[in-house]
Amino acid sequence: MRAEEKSAEAVVAMKSGNAEGAKGRRTKEMELERDLEQLDNAVSRTFRQKAMYENLMEEAVAPENYRNALGAVTRNDGAPGIDRMPAAELEKHLETHGEKSRAKLLAGTYVPTPVRRVEIPKPSGGVRMLGIPTVMDRFIQQLLLQVLSPIFEPLFRDHSYGFRPGKSAADAMRAAREFTRTGKDWVVDIDITKFLDTASYCPLVHESCSNNAGC
């Protein structure tokens, strides 16, 4: 090969190498930009979430949430708690004591009333212990439920049906039938006897919060 041809090939190889090097650097720069953007989004999301959680109690006692909770508890009715006050008297009770309860919630000093314990006969024998909160405490629970559900509800799996808004045991049965049509023919029924009577409540709540809510 002549010297001129070798020189031309060297120039082409150099240009090709420079192009590949530039392409590689650009790819790395794009990856770095993407990583920085993801980090920025994550930091922004964290601060937005923190701000939202810091204002949760204010959202809970906001007038619109207040009215919605009052309507829900009144419609649900249910048995009275230890103070024997029926749901029909809740609105009148709030007219007198609502502001005081609101102030306690914002100050973090609200203390629920003890539940009324009742025994419900079980079909298999024995009894199931049930605690019935006062109507006022059910109202407070509803206030909190309405602001917590939008945060935690999206974290549940689609095939979780227990006590989910818009889902029921009938939906679970339909899903089970669909599973059988795809060849899945095993059913596992697990019930831990008196689990919530013996499990420590705080670690359960802390695990949920620390994983999902930045607590």
Q: Any chance you could write out the topology, listing elements then pairs?
A:
Layout: H1 3-54, H2 56-60, H3 63-76, H4 90-107, E1 116-121, E2 127-132, H5 135-152, H6 169-181, H7 195-198, H8 201-212
Antiparallel strand pairs: 1-2
Write up this protein.
With 215 residues, this protein is mainly α. It has helices at 3-54, 56-60, 63-76, 90-107, 135-152, 169-181, 195-198, 201-212; strands spanning 116-121, 127-132. A two-stranded antiparallel ribbon has the order 1-2. A hairpin with a 5-residue loop joins strand 1 and strand 2 (127-132). It starts with a helix and ends with a helix.
In short:
The protein has helices at about 5-55, 55-60, 65-75, 90-105, 135-150, 170-180, 195-200, 200-210, and strands spanning about 115-120, 125-130. The protein is mainly α and about 220 residues long.
Keywords:
215 residues, mainly alpha, 8 helices, 63% helix, 6% strand, disordered C terminus
